[in-house]
């Protein structure tokens, strides 16, 4: 069983886009931990270019990875994945994430906050819930951007239970059924129907909290694409269908994106004059089309590079997990520290992007050489690290 280098590249690209997205969050009108004085709606259409599909793509790739790992080395998988996902989560909540919450309180708390970071940190560890504004109280401690880790762990447990409890023949039949359903145009239609149903039925009923226990719309979309990846991982027909339909997928995603942006930013509808209910429902379907067809296009175009290995890819494949853990705290701290300089937003954003990548990659260069730090950032122990992973499309 060979490694899927196309999925490695897509995973690297998706995490790179995540850095750009979180820098963008500093400059748009949407709520975030710190905000630029120049924040406006200007960048929001560009941000929405990746919003519908970026995290779903990562969950789908993780579903494929889980299938590969269960096929290659099933014994102890749940223990290994728990260590790889939950240990960095706990470390991140204790060490990496607190500066985000601190600067959020400093910038957004009514009346300001003038105590030191260490005074705040004591309250953070104690579970203090007294930092409140008109939108509610900040819940501490928090995992903020690390929400991906507990969600991925939960879905991994689900896949492990399917593998553990179902007879091998039943799981094989389930995969064969998925391969049949996801063949040809079914590779586009079936996931779109699933995601459209989730959005129509749940998005208006459940706020997207990233809190795991009450986030039912996000579970409906992310668990669905994870299971698609898990069940279709070995289906050649699925991957070849996506390759054949890559241009059609790209066109559908582009049309869906254009429709969303037109209605939300150029049609005149707003909070004071909302779009009619029929149009809002139609846009939920359009969102699902954009969401899955963008993923399908990326998978289809990348499939031809499934055997394209390189030293750079091997380096970045391991680097993206520490970069993911570190990047948002780096962005928040840098943005807050740069604010007094009153830089032109374009220059400031460029500095934030370059500095974030540079600092995170420098940190990775140190982390990978430090045995005690490696497991805290999701890297295998030095003694256990193979020369080259053999099968799993992703290592986290």
Automatic annotation (TrEMBL):
The keyword Isomerase does not apply. The keyword Membrane applies. The chain crosses the membrane at residues 12-30, 53-70, 85-103, 148-166, 178-202, 222-239, 251-269, 281-303, 315-335, 347-367. Pfam families: Acyl_transf_3. InterPro entries: Acyl_transf_3_dom (IPR002656), Glucan_succinyl_AcylTrfase (IPR050623). Residues 5-364 form the Acyltransferase domain. One of its GO terms (molecular function) is acyltransferase activity, transferring groups other than amino-acyl groups. Keywords: Membrane, Transferase, Transmembrane, Transmembrane helix. This is Acetyltransferase. It comes from Stenotrophomonas terrae.
